[in-house]
Predict the structure.
Amino acid sequence: MLLRLPLTCVALAGSLWLWGAGPWPAQAQTETGAQEALQTGAEGETGTLARLRARGVLLCGVSAGLPGLAAPDGNGIWQGFEVALCRALAAAVLDDPFAVRYVPGAAPVQLRELAAGAVDVLPLGPGNSFRTDTDKGVRFTTAALHDVQGFLTRREGGAASARDLAGEVICLTPGPGGEQGVAEYFAHAGLEWEPLFVATPAEALAAYGAGLCRAVSAGTARLASLRAALPDAEAHVLLPETVGRQVLGPVVARGDEDWAAIVTWMVHALVAAEELGVTSANVEELARGTEQLALNMLLGTAPGAEGGLGLGAEWARRAVVAGGNYGEIFAGTLGEDTPLGLPRGLNALWTQGGLIHAPPFR
């Protein structure tokens, strides 16, 4: 039996269980962002970069309030892994990491907005897959986060394995993986289960907290974020089983290859900075010039460092200055010393047993 939870039902459930995570970002921001995003660049200029420069602000489609990924802090300042990617991109393109307007929303809506030009980029859009890569409206750029889909449930329920969720209701939120991975897992095990579809992280927490589902299934980064938002986070656990791998990264509208290249190489620059030992603490010193050609190319002091991106020679230096290299961004938003507590795992550099790597800067 497939259940799709009405919004009114979720709102009622949420009112019955006060989980204390505070208000979620207003979805009304989307309409304003969509109207402003349709501005064009100066006369004679076309493309995303021209429109962005004319507007003076990057429109970034982010998750709907997921701590560690994208959510306002206590002072109303957006923080998280997605936010850090947006700031690095704004720094590279506009020389201002804070020239960003964050447009929160659910994945299906964001994809339509992106294809229509209402936002410039989704920093962690739906994962790279056959469907995403062949969509005529949007395109995946490059990997920024390797994730796996898992399950979040209560410790006190006694579930030590996903098999213990047989016959139970499991909440599913929009995003990569979704129902397919869970359905395949239980079908392979010959077990029954019941999906409950919700539209946003807030609704997932409300439904889960009110006991409408025994567990939530999503990527482990999302699940860790949801758990961190709970007032009794230690009472909830991520089960050991995973039901699919997700390769997440920036998604842009199809048809503007120049913009896709800028977004792709911004991520590569953050990774290359970690590989080459460039950090937020030493980037300015190294930008004065070194004996390493790769470093000089990355930081804009070697001939030809500008490449064909049209951003000036120091675009990558600006991206790193905005929030550090890839490792610094991961550690400060998702890592083991944050409320999410995620290990690097697959997101370690390839030289350290992970999958993260960048093409050479030469």
The chain is about 35% helix and 15% strand. Residues 1-44 have pLDDT under 50 and may be disordered. Residues 300 and 328 are 21 Å apart (CA to CA).
